[in-house]
């Protein structure tokens, strides 16, 4: 075993005395009323942290720091390589901006418990919007700007927002993407209608505003009286963040106020080894959990400076953007998805651009969202010369579940492993029958209940789905949806999802959702969408389609129509580029589509033909088709 005395002690204590452990961590948060109970279980059997506690997350993230000598410290740095704009906002300025926006929202009738959807690009105003909601006790739901109107409409109908906040456009490489037409289309699709939309005008593409529904953001903010922080319960929801599940309807992950604040503050030191006043640069869209936790709430609650990038790590203007930002803003910790580094490496394999910049401020690089392949890990270690930490987490947890906890005691890195369970997480590998598996045995990665603070208490207005999706399969455990194993040294290895969720360039998507859309095409009899390995994006979806009898549409035509269908309904980020016509799909004798076998064929994995397959010959046909179309890493070269 690779033992680490301090870490082992803390980890054991977090499991043997969770209430004592988390009561201590809760001391870092400015409570309005300290929690009466550290952990409790409600009548529905759901677990809650810090019941009876009162706080305001916006106060903890801003006002508390202004009142304790951090008013002039920079809280946010916005860097836009496409426009050349760099904006630095102190904690005091942030307080003023957020209080005014909160006042504007209050003037629109937004109060505690009301939902507000935020459909915006990577701007300071997006962070202001999240914090302004928190200030009022309103529940925000940020929707990733790359999602198509249908996805936005689904979220509008589920969250039922009183107000929607948006901007006139986002900037993607050399393209300006107008947001208002997307929001208008979503509102046409949605049943629920907000009472008002506030739109931030951007000079690259001002929008015409129909004043019956839209108000100009700046005008209402200028007219607003600043709003103070309201007191909320630790267990009140701070936000809903929708994420892909196995069906078309996304899951509304709920985050509470108290547990979230405590967990993030704890992680800033224990995992990321940062000190208040230091600089964290998390290159993730606000629309993902990583952007919520480590572009906004974590760094601010802990008194750090957070760098926000509007742009991509490549092509804006080149693959040196991350390194330039590290130098210019003296970044201490850089965090992004491995796919972003693969994109940089593809354009700058020798990392020549990194040598043009002073990276001496950098203490560590963190990656998550997908397994970090050993080649990318080694490349990063070589060019940065600092620890590179792969760590495992999910939207559901909101903070790392497995990591190399640099702030407690760094462990030797094993490429391919995100290292060991983080304090508070009792991680077990379970077999099909729910028994705990031994070292090196692969099974379901599960967490013994209750989950630590910060993790989802339930799904938005859908506790039955929460139970079904996560708690029913193995009673007493949370089912992560990932497979994996623990080695002899206690290192965790994640081998991939065991469900229909895939990860495309750091974007979590559902192949089940894509299958529902593909099946809705009038010519399609049935289909399978599988996530095949992709050297740059980690995974990408590929469709296999059987046409209804008598259809005369060509393979090329149906492929084009299905690509457009997915792009228009989910978004370009789905990266759905292939829909291959097959005569039949490989199935078991009981009719279950063998999606895993199709994926293994495309990925060139060796596998045994499932004994239950109804027609083994179909696999040869699919292999020949993949080869002919050069689809899948086994056939691309
Ligand atoms: N708004 C509108 N469109 C968007 C968008 C947004 N916010 N984000 C992406 N898109 C579009 C892109 O313009 C592109 O459209 P196209 O097919 O018309 O060219 C498409 O969606 C695919 O985008 P993406 O998958 O991001 O590919 P890319 O080539 O633009 O960039 C990476 C590749 C790897 C650099 C980029 O995906 C990346 O930085 N990923 C990291 C994601 C991340 O940080 N995840 C969470 C962290 S854990
Ligand atoms: P998301 O909810 O978008 O953060 O995606 C969570 C999923 O991404 C997990 O269930 C994993 O499948 C995958 N994932 C995240 N981080 C890692 C990692 N470090 N290693 C392997 N898979 C990861």
TrEMBL record:
Membrane-spanning segments: none
Residues annotated as domain Acetyl-coenzyme A synthetase N-terminal: 9-61
Molecular function via GO: propionate-CoA ligase activity
Gene3D superfamilies, per database record: 3.30.300.30, N-terminal domain of ligase-like
PROSITE patterns: AMP_BINDING (PS00455)
InterPro entries reported for this sequence: ACAS_N (IPR032387), AMP-bd_C (IPR025110), AMP-bd_C_sf (IPR045851), AMP-binding_CS (IPR020845), AMP-dep_synth/lig_dom (IPR000873), ANL_N_sf (IPR042099)
Domain AMP-dependent synthetase/ligase: 69-449
Domain AMP-binding enzyme C-terminal: start-end pairs: 514-592
SUPFAM superfamilies: Acetyl-CoA synthetase-like
PANTHER family (alphabetical): ACYL-COA SYNTHETASE, ACYL-COA SYNTHETASE SHORT-CHAIN FAMILY MEMBER 3, MITOCHONDRIAL
UniProt similarity note: Belongs to the ATP-dependent AMP-binding enzyme family.
Protein name as annotated: AMP-binding protein
Lineage: Bacteria, Pseudomonadati, Bacteroidota, Cytophagia, Cytophagales
């Amino acid at each position: 075993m690779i033992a680490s005395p301090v870490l082992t002690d803390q980890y054991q204590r977090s499991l043997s005395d969770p209430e004592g452990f988390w009561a201590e961590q809760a001391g870092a948060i400015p409570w309005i009323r300290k929690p009466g109970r550290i952990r409790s279980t409600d009548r529905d059997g759901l677990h809650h942290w810090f019941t009876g506690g009162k706080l305001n997350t916006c106060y903890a993230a801003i006002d508390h720091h202004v009142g304790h000598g951090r008013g002039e410290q920079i809280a946010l740095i916005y860097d836009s390589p496409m426009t050349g704009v760099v904006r630095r906002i102190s904690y005091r300025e942030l307080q003023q901006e957020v209080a005014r926006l909160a006042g504007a929202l209050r003037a629109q009738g937004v109060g505690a418990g009301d939902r507000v959807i935020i459909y915006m690009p990577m701007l300071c105003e997006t962070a202001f919007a999240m914090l302004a909601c928190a200030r009022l006790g309103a529940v925000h739901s940020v929707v990733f700007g790359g999602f198509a109107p249908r996805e936005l409409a689904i979220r509008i109908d589920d969250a039922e927002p009183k107000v929607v906040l948006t901007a006139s456009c986002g900037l993607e490489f050399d393209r300006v993407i107008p947001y208002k037409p997307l929001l208008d289309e979503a509102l046409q699709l949605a049943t629920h209608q907000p009472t008002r939309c506030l739109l931030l005008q951007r000079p690259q593409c001002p929008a015409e505003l129909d004043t019956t529904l839209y108000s100009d953001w700046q005008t209402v903010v200028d007219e607003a009286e600043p709003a103070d922080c309201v007191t909320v319960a630790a267990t009140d929801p701070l936000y809903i963040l929708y994420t892909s599940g196995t069906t078309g309807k996304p899951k509304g992950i709920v985050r509470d106020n108290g547990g979230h604040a405590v967990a993030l503050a704890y992680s800033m030191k224990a995992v990321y080894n940062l000190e208040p006043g230091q600089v964290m640069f998390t290159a993730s869209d606000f629309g993902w959990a990583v952007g919520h936790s480590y572009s906004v709430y974590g760094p601010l609650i802990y008194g750090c400076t957070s760098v926000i990038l509007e742009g991509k790590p490549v092509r804006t203007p080149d693959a040196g953007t991350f390194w330039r930002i590290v130098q210019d803003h003296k970044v201490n910790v850089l965090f992004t998805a491995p796919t972003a580094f693969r994109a940089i490496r593809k354009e700058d394999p020798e990392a020549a651009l990194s040598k043009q910049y002073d990276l001496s401020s950098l203490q560590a690089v963190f990656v998550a969202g997908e397994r970090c392949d050993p080649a990318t890990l080694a490349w990063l270690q070589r060019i940065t010369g600092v620890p590179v930490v792969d760590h495992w987490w999910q939207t559901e947890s909101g903070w790392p579940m497995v990591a190399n906890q640099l702030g407690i005691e760094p462990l030797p890195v094993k490429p391919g492993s995100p290292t060991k369970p983080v304090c508070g997480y009792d991680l077990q590998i379970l077999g099909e029958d729910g028994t705990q598996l031994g070292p090196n045995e692969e099974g379901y990665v599960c967490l013994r209940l209750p989950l630590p603070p910060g993790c989802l208490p339930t799904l938005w207005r859908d506790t039955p789905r929460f139970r079904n999706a996560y708690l029913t399969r193995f009673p007493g455990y949370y089912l992560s949806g990932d497979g994996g194993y623990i080695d002899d040294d206690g290192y965790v290895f994640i081998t991939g999802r065991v469900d229909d969720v895939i990860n495309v360039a750091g974007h979590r998507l559902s192949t089940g959702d894509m299958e529902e859309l593909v099946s809705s095409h009038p010519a399609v009899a049935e289909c399978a969408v599988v996530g095949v390995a992709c050297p740059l994006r980690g995974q990408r979806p590929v469709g296999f389609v059987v046409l209804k009898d008598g259809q005369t549409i060509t393979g090329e035509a149906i492929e084009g129509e299905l690509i457009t269908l997915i792009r228009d309904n989910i978004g370009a980020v789905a990266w759905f580029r292939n829909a291959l016509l097959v005569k039949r799909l490989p199935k078991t004798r009981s009719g279950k589509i063998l999606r895993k076998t199709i994926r293994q064929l495309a990925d060139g994995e060796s596998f045994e033909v499932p004994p239950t397959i109804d027609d083994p010959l179909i696999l040869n046909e699919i292999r020949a088709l993949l080869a002919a179309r050069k689809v899948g890493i086994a056939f691309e070269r």
